[in-house]
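Hi all, posting the design record for the shared folder.

TITLE: backbone redesign
STEP: 1 of 1
STRUCTURE INPUT:
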């Protein structure tokens, strides 16, 4: 299951919902997101943007 430090969901009406520090699963009928606030299911998705910041390794 992918992890994202910042996940933005763009809805069909061009509104955006952002989540911080989440795990998520993309499905044919939407996205399921697990955050500190609990589980979220979003079905009206136009696009998602996920960013993961990693510590630098030397």
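Okay, here is what came back for every position:
SEQUENCE:
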């Amino acid at each position: 299951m992918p992890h994202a430090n910042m996940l933005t969901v763009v809805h069909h009406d061009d509104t955006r919902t952002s989540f911080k520090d989440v795990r998520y699963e993309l499905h044919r009928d939407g996205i399921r997101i697990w955050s500190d606030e609990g589980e979220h299911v979003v079905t009206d998705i136009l696009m998602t943007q996920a960013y993961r910041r990693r510590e630098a390794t030397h």
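COMMENT: Residues 6 and 16 are 12 Å apart (CA to CA).
Let me know if anyone wants the other runs.
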